[in-house]
Amino acid sequence: MKNFLKISLLILVCGCTSAPKIDTQHQTFYDISGYFTSEAKRLTERKASVQKTVRKNNETEQKILSNIDWLKELDLFISSDINKPAWLRSYIETRSDSIIRYSPIDSNLKIKSIIIKELNGDIQSVYIQKYTKNFLYTSSEELFYYPDSIYKMTRVQKVIWLGETTYAIEGKILK
């Protein structure tokens, strides 16, 4: 249990920042932050438990957790919102009948892709891809969310002199 918590905390602490406040007058993209905050509230009220698998390289741990702080659990999703005033003209939105896709115009932006699949106005899945590179490290992340089913977060970090580390969290939301 101790290792499980250490790995979970490491993954969340390394990639989490608190969600910025959004100026709703300038909101032009899908409200990712609002959606996941609402999901966290709904899952908390439902007292949803989760079968959580945490992996670091080749080490894996699995636990069933029932007392979950869903705001913290979904924080990587919440903090992936692109509705920041500075980014109003930084992303291209493309829509089809059931898919909303956001792609950056500037290749230097951390969030590389957001794909939201809907059916009759209900979210079926959310995919978020992030990538960061500087002279010390590269980090690529993929986030998947399927309401009332599963969420996945994977990160591959390559740090100069330390090599590559792969982290993954998978949570199966239990009924």
Quick synopsis:
The protein has 175 residues and is an alpha+beta fold. The protein has 4 helices and 9 strands; from the N terminus they run ααββααβββββββ.
Task: Write up what this structure looks like.
The protein has 175 residues and is α+β, with helices and mostly antiparallel strands. The chain has helices at 2-15, 32-46, 70-73, 75-78; strands at residues 49-56, 59-65, 91-95, 99-104, 111-119, 122-133, 137-146, 150-159, 163-174. Strands 2-1-9-8-7-6-5-4-3 form a 9-stranded antiparallel beta sheet, with helices on one face. Strand 7 (137-146) and strand 8 (150-159) form a beta hairpin. The longest helix is centred in the first third of the chain and has 15 residues, at 32-46. It is flat.
Question: Would you spell out the secondary-structure blueprint of this structure?
Answer:
Layout: H1 2-15, H2 32-46, E1 49-56, E2 59-65, H3 70-73, H4 75-78, E3 91-95, E4 99-104, E5 111-119, E6 122-133, E7 137-146, E8 150-159, E9 163-174
Tell me the total number of β-strands: 9
N to C succession of SSEs: HHEEHHEEEEEEE
Helix share bin? 10-25%
Q: If you average the pLDDT, what whole number results?
A: 86
**Order of strands across the widest beta sheet?**
2-1-9-8-7-6-5-4-3
Distance between the first and last residues' Cα: 23 Å
**Structural class by sheet pairing and helices:** alpha+beta
What's the total helix number? 4
Major sheet: size, sense and barrel closure? 9 strands, antiparallel
How would you describe the oligomerization state of the chains in this entry?
Answer: single chain
Give the radius of gyration: 16 Å
Shape: flat
Percentage of β-strand residues: over 45%
Poorly predicted residue ranges: 4-25
